Amino acid sequence: MASLNSNQKSTASKAEGIEPQTGSVIEVNIGGQVFSTCSETFAKYPESLLGLVFSTSVDSVPLLKDTRGRYFIDRDGNLFRFILDFMRNDKLVLPEDFSEKHRLIEEASYYRLPGLVKSVENQSEPKSVRFQSDVNGHDLCEDFNSPTKEGNELDQAGDISEGAKARGGTGFITVGYRGTFAFGRDGLADVQFRKVIRILVHGKVSLCREVFGNSLNESRDPDRGSTERYSSRFFLKYNSLEQAFDQLAVRGFVLSASTACSANGVSMTSDCESEENRWMHYTEFTFYRP
Predict the structure, then answer these.
(1) Angle between helices 101-110 and 77-89 (to 10 degrees)
(2) Three-state DSSP state, 20
(3) Do the Cβ atoms of 222 and 229 come closer than 8 Å?
(4) Alpha-carbon distance 126 to 149, whole Å?
(5) Per-residue pLDDT reduced to its tens digit, 221-255
(6) Considering just the CA atoms, what is the radius of gyration of the chain in Å?
(7) Given CB 3.0 to 4.6 Å as the disulfide criterion, which of 59, 122, 234, 247 pairs with 201?
């Protein structure tokens, strides 16, 4: 019995400084992304939308529920992580390369968090860089925070300007997709269209966010942390390869390498093998910004 008391004291000593959490666990579906937190997190901001929705002292604000019974709010799920972090920690921490300040202000206003709105407004503006072409077809880079364009043009070796390097740096981004061709019934269609199932994105987190912005779906990436890390668990919210290539080109990336292979590794008999399965393939494109 004495040994048990000693263990209890040791455990209590280790737990010093850790605030006990109370209340129930809440799951919310924000634009297709699921977040979990304690009810007391929302209760800290009783005048906020979420504070009112999950308040026990006032009539609940009616919300839709998804197929699994979770409360659904049709807002930006990628930006909601900053909303939730603010409500948890009572402070705002944004990545250095964060470029969606105005959209975050809109989200904070929707959730009725004036303190967060003020915190976002006090954040310094990131450098804004735009790529364009001159009359000779040469790429130019304009830094909107600079009064002049001196030094912004590409040098004769084709290097990206210092303004672009200062914003996102150099690096590689790999875009891959698994696809096939959409055939008509019994394979008799005269025209076979490309069918892209999903576009995957691999690379440094800060570069991927800079290039694809709100088009980047991060719901499958569990390691939310430093933007200097790398991830292979991003995918795009659209299925147009050319749209992804356009976004990469605007940010100064050029195609470095590509590879393709058959993605149909299952041996099937002729009775069950369809034309779409026959043409299933996986392709990757690696882009580089020097």
Answers:
(1) 70
(2) coil
(3) no
(4) 18
(5) 766 666 788 998 899 988 889 999 999 999 999 99
(6) 25
(7) 234
